[in-house]
Amino acid sequence: MTVTYVIDGSRVTGLDRFWDVVGEAVNGPGGYFGRGLDAFADCLSGGFGTPEDGDFAIEWRHHTESARALGHEETARRLEDLLPRVHPANRERVERELARARAGQGPTLFDDLVGIITDRTAPGTLRLL
Fold it and tell me: Quick check: 14 and 69 in contact, CB under 8 A?
C-alpha cells in the first residue's frame, strides 16, 4: 500500500523551515529528513522514514507558496552562507550562481528540491497541489 507524505507548503518560509516541515511530514513532530540537498536526496532513497521499497508519494500542497519562499532571494541567501566554506575549485561556479540568483535568474531552491524528488523517486511520486 502506497504511503503518502503531505508537505504543507504554506508552512515553508525558507529552506530551514522546509527541512522541519518535510521531516515532520515523513517522521512526525521533530522528525529528521535531511538538512541539506545531498542529505535530502539520500533520505529519499529509503530507510530514513520512507519505505525501503520506494512505495510512497509526496503530496506538496500549497507548493506555489513554497516556490515563493524558496525562490531567488532564499537561493541567494543559501549561496552566500555556502560561499565561505566552498572548495576553492568550486568558488567561481558558486559566485556565478550567486550573481544569477541575486539578479532573479536561474534555478531556485524550489526547483532544486523538485528536481531531487523527481530524480530520486518513482515517476508520479511527487504531486504538486
Answer: yes
- As a whole number of Å, the CA-based R_g of the chain is 15
User: Mean pLDDT, 10 residues at a time, over the chain (129 residues)?
Assistant: 94 98 94 91 84 90 98 98 97 98 98 96 92
Measured CA to CA, the distance from residue 125 to residue 62 in angstroms comes to: 17
Distance CA 96, CA 111 (A): 17
Are the CB atoms for 9 and 59 separated by under 8 Å?
no
CA distance 86 to 90: 6
- Residue pair 25/5 in contact by the 8 Å Cβ criterion: yes
Q: Which of 114, 97, 127, 124 is nearest to 40 (CA)?
A: 114
pTM of the model: 0.94
Do residues 65 and 51 make contact, with C-beta atoms less than 8 angstroms apart? no
| HSE of 62, CA atoms in CB hemisphere, 13 A | 15
